[in-house]
Write a structure and sequence with these properties.
2 domains; alpha/beta; about 10% strand; about 200 residues; Arc Repressor Mutant, subunit A; Rossmann fold
């Protein structure tokens, strides 16, 4: 999917400000733009539309509205760009914690919409990649710990060396066409039942 094929949802209670964003997106070549002027029921709209990117514009943000939007954005795994006219440190931190990819204060101009959208998508993709890499690294570490535990159990129960215990785990995994970590989990589980 190219950047121009994106389905974009614009949430803006102010029709004039929404038209600035929509015009900036259309001039940049984006054809699939939906504008919503009502924040209430927005979760259903997002579920139905399944946008690739969400742009939120809040002229005068109040604490309740920001919290409602931040609760929503925490559950939506999509790039989100937010335009506000004024802000404070707490609002910026809350936006970052909620997963907002671009938080723009006092910068709503149609010629800035596309670069901000592109930046939000790029930041979201980079953050998602880092999150996946972290999850993969954690998973690999947990698998290594599990394999080490299984080797220790085999060494103790069968009197094997570390190399022999690992070779036994590896050979069993190959014979059963399973992952090494699955065999290690079986060994740890069985040992837990026997001890």
């Amino acid at each position: 999917m190219t950047h121009l094929d994106l389905t974009i949802l614009v949430i803006d209670e102010n029709a004039i400000r929404a038209s600035i964003i929509e015009e900036g997106l259309r001039e940049a070549g984006h054809a699939r733009v939906t504008v919503v002027h009502e924040v209430n029921g927005i979760a259903r709209t997002i579920e139905t539309l399944m946008p690739d990117v969400i742009i939120i514009d809040i002229e005068n943000p109040n604490r309740d509205m920001m919290e409602h939007l931040f609760q929503l954005t925490r559950t939506v795994s999509r790039p989100i760009a937010m335009f506000v006219d004024r802000s404070d440190t707490a609002s910026i931190e809350a936006a970052v914690d909620a997963g907002v990819s671009a938080y723009i204060v006092d910068g709503l101009k149609k010629e800035r919409v596309k670069p901000i959208l592109d930046m939000a998508v790029s930041r979201f993709n980079a953050f998602s990649r880092l999150r996946r890499e972290l999850a993969d690294a954690r998973s690999a570490l947990e698998e290594r710990k599990l394999i080490e535990r299984a080797k220790g159990i085999l060494m103790k129960m069968r009197g094997l060396s570390e190399e022999e215990a690992f070779a036994l785990l590896r050979q069993t995994a190959m014979n059963e066409k399973k992952k090494l970590s699955e065999i290690a989990q079986s060994v740890v589980t069985a040992a837990g039942l026997l001890m």
